[in-house]
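4.2 Preliminary Data

To establish feasibility before requesting continued support, the project team ran the inverse folding procedure on a target of 240 residues. The structure was first converted into the token representation described in Section 3, and no sequence information of any kind was made available to the design step. The complete token record follows.
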């Protein structure tokens, strides 16, 4: 077999295997079908979708329309094979979730006074903070929306008494914020899967907190919101 064709086929088949793995090895393992499904969940596939779809057409021409022996109706250009190999390397070693997280994570204890938290909102330009109990267990996600909601519920004659109000009081005004925890060593694929699963389950995942162990009582190493996922697409576009 022509060496360049062989390299193309081997690399294409390795990417096909990755797509099967990303989709849980479904019965229908047609490359384009897997590509379409993966596009909805993973930024790497989304960015390279059009290229991979074209490469699938080329692969079909090579495999099914061979004229005779080593004479193919189409032969991939060297640049095509190199690009296919770059995509394959990205799938082999996908970026870490931590690369797209907000770091370091500023968090507070449940007894932290509201005034201090409001100052932190202003100083750091962050819209949400994880709150932990005295035993280091996760208490909830405190957001600027939750603060505004609490103030609207506790304002009388245009005034709200903030003295002795702490994070635990505000958490009672927070709507059910779906938060999940993931190991900081996880890949961006695992991170995206969490957000995709939440959509499938019809619940909005507000954030994924990354910790070394993946447990909720561990120190947060990074926090990822849906806004942070935009950085994944942007980086892939820049590297493409």
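Position-by-position output of the design step:
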């Amino acid at each position: 077999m022509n060496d360049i064709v062989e390299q193309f086929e081997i690399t294409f088949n390795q990417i096909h295997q990755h797509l099967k793995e990303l989709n849980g090895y479904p019965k229908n393992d047609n490359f384009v079908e897997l590509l379409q499904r993966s596009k909805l969940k993973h930024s790497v596939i989304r960015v390279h979708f059009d290229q991979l779809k074209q490469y699938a057409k080329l692969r079909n021409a090579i495999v099914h329309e061979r004229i005779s022996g080593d004479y193919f109706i189409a032969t991939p250009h060297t640049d095509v094979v190199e690009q296919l190999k770059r995509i394959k390397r990205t799938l082999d070693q996908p970026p870490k979730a931590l690369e797209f997280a907000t770091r370091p994570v500023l968090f507070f204890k449940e007894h932290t006074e509201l005034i201090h938290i409001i100052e932190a909102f202003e100083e750091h330009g962050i819209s949400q903070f994880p709150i932990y109990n005295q035993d280091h267990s996760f208490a909830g996600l405190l957001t600027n929306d939750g603060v505004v909601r609490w103030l609207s519920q506790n304002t009388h004659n245009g005034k709200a008494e903030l003295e002795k109000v702490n994070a635990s009081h505000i958490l009672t005004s927070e709507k059910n914020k779906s938060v999940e925890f993931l190991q900081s060593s996880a890949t961006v694929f695992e991170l995206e899967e969490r957000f995709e699963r939440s959509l499938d389950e019809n619940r909005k995942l507000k954030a994924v907190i990354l910790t070394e162990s993946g447990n909720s009582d561990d120190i947060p190493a990074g926090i990822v919101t849906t806004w942070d996922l935009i950085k994944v697409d942007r980086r892939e576009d820049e590297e493409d």
